[in-house]
Design a protein that fits this description.
Layout: H1 8-14, E1 19-21, E2 29-30, E3 38-39, E4 50-53, E5 65-73, H2 79-82, H3 84-91, E6 97-106, E7 109-120, E8 123-135, E9 142-152, H4 159-168, E10 170-171
Antiparallel strand pairs: 1-5, 2-10, 3-4, 4-5, 5-9, 6-7, 7-8, 8-9
Helix pairs in contact: 1-3
Length: 172
């Protein structure tokens, strides 16, 4: 049994499972590109399947961004036992304030959805995390798909685009 205060990595470890990077596999996870966002190429973050940025909203060398990670799991996990770790991890961020934290079922799979604000180096950011454990139709195993979208905390006008990405996240 995993401690209720354990984060995602501890929960995966307790299950004896590790995420395995699989960026060269088929395009399993995908998301829509909202208006005002551009695909900047996964080369900026080699472990990512997709990296998007709202470059027209850049300030001080930073752009609002979305990073999609897609891993194969080395063994089976119970999503109900693992996904709460994403909420635990978010609450550990410096100055974290929760706006959304729930676990629900989506067409892509069981999902932890977390949104809130935190401070990093004097910058107040709003982050939305969608963590999905989905069936892998190719291997018969499971995938761990993580979409993290970070925008300035005061950019309420960007939330529709963030929600479009979260709601449009596909795991095929």
């Amino acid at each position: 049994m995993t401690d209720a205060g354990a984060g995602l990595q501890a929960r995966l470890g307790a299950a004896g499972v590790t995420p395995v990077l699989d960026v060269d596999g088929g395009a399993v996870a995908a998301l829509p590109v909202p208006a005002g966002w551009v695909d900047v190429g996964a080369e900026v973050m080699p472990a990512a399947r997709t990296v998007l940025a709202a470059v027209d909203r850049s300030r001080a060398g930073w752009s609002p961004n979305a990073v999609l990670l897609d891993h194969r799991l080395s063994g089976p996990v119970d999503p109900a036992a693992v996904l709460p770790g994403a909420i635990v991890d978010a609450r550990a961020m410096p100055g974290w304030t929760t706006e959304i934290d729930r676990i629900d079922q989506t067409p892509a799979g069981e999902r932890a959805l977390v949104r809130g604000t935190y401070e990093a180096e004097g910058f107040l950011a709003r982050v939305t995390l969608a963590l999905v454990i989905a069936a892998d139709g190719e291997t018969g195993g499971q995938r761990l798909v993580q979409l993290t979208v970070t925008v300035p905390a005061d950019a309420d006008d960007m939330l529709d685009a963030v929600d479009e990405m979260v709601d449009g996240l596909r795991v095929d």
